[in-house]
Amino acid sequence: MITVNEYFDGAVKSLGYENNGKSTVGVIDAGEYEFGTSTHETMVIVEGEMQVLLAGQEQWKTFGAGDKFRGRG
């Protein structure tokens, strides 16, 4: 079953599904957001660019199409 998730008044949306593990695909509108996760997640940037301040880091990093990073749970 596919689940629909919406955050930050609709500025962030994702579709989640389970098939041999959990996965989501989402869209993030331009803006500043703070996310928390309960599990480790790997984020893959498909299109565009985003600046990210990872937990425990002091410097922002820029990720673009094809880049990926891991979020801590």
Q: How many E strands?
A: 7
Class derived from helix and strand content:
mainly beta
How much strand? over 45%
Radius of gyration, CA atoms, in whole angstroms:
13 Å
N to C succession of SSEs: EEEEEEE
Large-scale geometry: globular
Largest sheet: 3 strands, antiparallel
CA distance, first residue to last residue:
24 Å
Overall average residue pLDDT: 90
* Helical fraction: under 10%
If helices are DSSP runs of H or I spanning 4 or more residues, what is the number of helices? Answer: 0
Catalogue the unreliable spans. none
Widest beta sheet: strand line-up:
1-2-3
Structure description:
- There is one protein chain.
- 0% of the residues lie in helices and 48% in strands.
- With 73 residues, it is mostly beta strands.
- The strands form three sheets. It has a three-stranded antiparallel sheet with strand order 1-2-3, with no helix packed on it. A two-stranded antiparallel sheet has the order 4-7.
- A hairpin with an 8-residue loop joins strand 5 and strand 6 (61-64).
- The two termini are 24 Å apart.
- 0% of the residues are buried.
